[in-house]
Amino acid sequence: MTAPARLSALRRLALPVVVVGLGLGLGACGNSGLTLAKQACSHINRSIALLHESDRAPDQAAAGRLQNQAYDELRLALPLAAQAAYADGQWQSLMTTISESNRVPETTLESALSAQCVEADSSVFGQTPPPPSSIPPPAPAP
Q1: Does position 61 have pLDDT exceeding 70, yes or no?
Q2: Domain boundaries, the chain
Q3: pTM score, two decimals?
């Protein structure tokens, strides 16, 4: 492995550690989990847009630059998602999905990230309504 390739690999490994550390360290800033999840989703949505733009790039070099920008944008969402998960466990899956981006291509994660961001954008007061139940309530005590 060449020195530049080694340095690039080291940066890709170090970035998630630093980002998660910053996310957890800044977790006491007082933002709600929903607000933080929405902020993370703004980065995710930009990342997905860049990824789609790379599909229409005129050449491989431009596509590669756009894909790198998309990856960087997605990684910016990680500390926000970590803070959201710390504030409200319902966002744990968002953080976990983003954290997989250093091992799994973003195109594979796109549908999960999009669905999680739809949930963040449609949540009311940080809570998703429970599913309807077909179980009757308990009988009153005599």
Answers
A1: yes
A2: 11-122
A3: 0.66
